[in-house]
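anyone else get weird line breaks when pasting these?? whatever heres mine. first is seq + tokens for prot A
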Amino acid sequence: YTNIFYHEWDKMGQNGITQRFRGSYSARIDDRGRLKIPARFLSVFETEYGRDVFITSLNGDHVILYPIRVWEEMESRIESHGAWDPDMDDFINRLGFFGVESAIDSKGRILLPPELRRESRLEEEVRVFGKASHLVIWNAEFFRERELGEQYSKEKLHRISRIINGIPPLPGHEQ
């Protein structure tokens, strides 16, 4: 049943419906620092984006892997906004500090920069999350501690349900 679902999903992507990175998968980093991209995500790269990527991080606690086309669209939006905004300048500096262009090799692996691997504690077993247009790579235990360490509050769920359903935020709850 699962294979049929993915087969149908792949066919939809070929008919003009863009495939997305969804869900999360366990993955391994080899002794040379290469991440084996999970097969489902590799399929999206091959179908939608190609193999060129931009690898970066905002805080060094996890790695963000943008298909280069997605990154270039983001750069265009940044340029149109203007880098003179102090928050935007900080954002650009952080992504630039960790950032490097690379490519997925013929075996579906990507070399992660040593400094970024150390900073984000990416060793052997990692978790790769699909975020629609890009991937995020976490040390699984660190993610569990940091992101899943507390219950998801009713307030957060209510706010997100308003966003998903197109309902304006309550007064005093804008972000």
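and prot B, same format (seq, then tokens)
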Amino acid sequence: MGGFGSGRYAEKYGYTAEDCLIISINKMFRQKCFVPGKGFSGTLKWTRGERETGSIGYESRMDIDSPYMRIHYTWKKTENCDYRIYLTITYPFFGGKRFWFLCPHCGRQVGKLYSPPNSSYFLCRTCQNLTYTSCRESHQYDILAAKIAASSGLSLKQAIKSIKNFQKEYFKN
């Protein structure tokens, strides 16, 4: 029972970045998938423990004026996906070059592209409507605090403070 992507939580609240397959431009440079001035091809693989959870083929072209990465894969055993993700370069003040993906949907410069379990494309976090687990956890008591504030005449800030004080006292040990 359970497992990766199971349950109804994601349907109600959406997926988090941690639920996704991720392509990181920095990781690809470290693994020599991108070599400035050259073309390269290979396979990206994702694993969970010893089990492979996904893989895609890629071809990177860094030897042309508009560098790109072409990815190709089959999604849900029926849909063949094959598209280009263009790269852009910035020049930081401290020197050197920094490469970025351009999101295939909105064109935003990003370092990572995400594909949640319900999506067939790798897009930026904004286009996939993703958040981080830590962001959700930091606001998990907001509704409770609002109810306490409404029923007790406290401000929302005071109610949040009283919940945090209660947590500190209750979970001391």
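btw re prot B: The radius of gyration is 22 Å. The helical segments are 9-13, 25-30, 133-138, 142-152, 156-170.
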